[in-house]
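Input sequence (508 aa), recorded before submission:
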Amino acid sequence: MIPGIVLGTTVAIPLAIAAGYLTARSILSKRSKLLELESRARAKAIEQEADNLLRNAKVELKSRELELEKRFNERVNEVEKRKRNLIIKERELDLEREKLQQLRMQSEQRLKSIERMQKRKNELLEENLHKIETLASMTSEEAKAFLLKSTAERIESQMAAVARREIKSAVEESKRKANYILAQATTRYAGEFAGERLINTISLPTDEHKGRIIGKEGRNIKTLEQLLGVDIIIDETPGVIVVSSFNLYRRAIATRVIQLLVEDGRIHPGRIEEVHEKVQKEFEEKIFEEGENVIIDLGLFPMHEELIRLLGKLKYRASYGQNALAHSLEVARLARVMAAEMDGDEKLALRAGLLHDIGKALTQDFGGSHVEIGAQLCRKYNEHPTVINAIYAHHGHEEPDSVESAAVCAADVLSAARPGARREVLESFTRRVKEIEDIALSHEGVEQAYAINAGRELRVTVDAGRVDDNSSVALCHEIAREIEEKVQYPGEIKVNVIREKRSIDFAR
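Predicted structure, token format:
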């Protein structure tokens, strides 16, 4: 029995091992097939990805080839154009050489003719001396003196006639050349012009916003007008309010502040001050960016950062109704064309034209002549002497010392004299309003002064710590009397002195 069991066990174990081996081999075979399928799938995916990359590379390479071919063709066209220009210049030079050669030959012929005439003159002089000695019984010295005197008088008369003729010809030629240069400059440059206004119109979503802007008992509109220094006009026109001020910079800031307040919906004195401070910072950055864009467009780097900022500020300055930055750009481009026609330095003329009115960016802050302020600024920041001379020369403080300065002077007159470019009435009005504000600011204790309502009202804010209620009444009367004495104006001007005391603390 036991041997049978042992025998059965001995037979069963190898069978079990064989069955296990076969099972394991089957499993391994299946796994190897799965791995093979996965590897094939991955290989196919990699192959597809490689094909995609190859196609993309071919497309990109083709686009690069097309771009390079385009640039190559552009360069070829540019080279051909330059070759044509050089050929034309060479022809012009050849013509000039021929003309010079002809002039040289004519000069030599004239010189020989003069020598012959001089020889003939000496012969005639000797002959006349002999005749005079014979007829008038004069000595040789006396006859010579008489002949020399008469000959000198005759020659002087002839020289005067020649000089008048040459001067007349030179004047006519200079006029013709000047008219040609001006015509070239004005026809090559066609600048846009838009007259500066005294108001900005702001659209409102609904008429309810008018009430919000006015605020309870007029608190909001009073804060806006006092803080921004403008006149806010709210009438029956639906969905519109008007911001009025002669100062472009204040008006632009006020417009932006009101637009942000309307978009935000929260309009109260605290929010107004917060938005005003934020907008002022934005405008300072915007001013520099405007100036930098001008310098980049004209290719006038390097230039000092302060001059770049002041150029941007000129966008918010008007002279006789003409935007100062637009005028400066117009003068710069006209001066460049004129300088090119007169074989001057185009880039220097462009720079001088752009900076000729740079002092106007500071006249509203410091007063004084924009010519002196501009010259001092350019001298401080090491600008070229020609730029400084152009600043002085365009208002007749100095004579132009170069072609570029003369071009700037002529371009300034062209830009200002163009029909519709300037308005004398507007400039006299802004000057009068500026004088009114300066009178108020000259008094002790005055913090701010704004002329509003088209110059018919002066709003003055004083320091409550330095001016009490009684002093504010006296100050108001004093300002009104000084305006009467120093300023010419139609009608009457209302002087409004505001004294406000604020106390601020924090609960922590």
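Checked by second reader. Residues 76 and 337 are 27 Å apart (CA to CA).
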